[in-house]
Specification:
By secondary structure, this protein is an alpha/beta fold. The chain has two domains: 206 residues, Peroxisomal Thiolase, Chain A, domain 1 (3-Layer(aba) Sandwich), CATH 3.40.47.10; 153 residues, Peroxisomal Thiolase, Chain A, domain 1, CATH 3.40.47. Helix content is 31%, strand content 22%. The chain is globular and about 55 Å long.
Amino acid sequence: MPARLTASELRTCFGDGAQTFAALLAGRSGIGPLRHGTPSALNVAHGYHIDDGLTRDFAASRWVAECASRAIVAAGLDPRRRRMVALVGTGLRELAAVEAYATGGTAVAAHRLHFGDAVGGAVPGLREVVTVSNACSAGGHVLALAEDLLMLGEADAVLVCGVDATTESMLAMIGRVVERPTDTVRPFDVDRQGVLLGDGAAAVVLVPDDDGRPALARVVATGLSCDAHHETAPSVSGIARAMRDALTRGDRHPAEVDLVVAHGTGTALNDPAECAAIREVLVAGGADPLVTAVKGATGHTSGAAALVNLDVGRRCLADGQVPPVVGLRSPLPEGAGLRFADTTIAHQPRLVQCDAFGFGGVNAVTLVEAP
């Protein structure tokens, strides 16, 4: 069953959602020098960092709490008067706090690795806060869970969050799979070098489709798959299955999708696989969508990535403009025939597909339209 999106708040390297979308439309990149760890040891020299002037201690908790609080205010809801739960998607939880302890910091209570205290403290009255650690599609998975809760009548409204902060452990992992440090993220580019991390947090509020309050967009459906194809390598069939699942759940035809906000990691394997799945499901079904992606501008925001894409998609619906794929200069051969946005394009989409794929083949695809 569809749901209404009544609030959407972001925090990226550019600022809030409006600031992020304006930067995307201008074709800007938020990349900067790496601020955490030793670049030579990590083989990573750049990142897309949030600089709020505060310490890194529990930064992810701080950012997601801020987004959650703003989203509740924007939605005009009082959780103390409605059955409302919160779901938080993340890839790393508060791993940065554990790393700090390992190098002489303060011991971390286990419950603070999750986000119950942070979100519950920022939004009094929530029935429950559940953290789901599910790689880079975590935000999409909690969005799907929220849709289920509303459909089953288990909640009157759901606060859906996603967050991750850059950690040295993750930096080491991405740095050691490339020969030289990646200088910038280039989604779908023939000369793409690999992924770089971006700090990010997001919070959205979903209510049932028959709720009469003003809405920013309508979440038609979210499709999921877990193909377990490989620890890191994506599966075209697994991604395609998530796309078809979203279309089936939303009772939509592939030809109706006219904009894709792609996962677009700028990596050797993900970009060709995503192109192949778009061609297999959408193009073969009669669609000719514009394709954009944000990670060249914001970096890979991991647990927040799906909700960042959702916010960008809903702003494209409202604004009638689609931002370019920052970092894309020459499309990869597997993208031949796809319409990548290489500049800001005036376009009024009807149905937007937002992609999010994670390690281990955990895939989430959300369809969104105007309210």
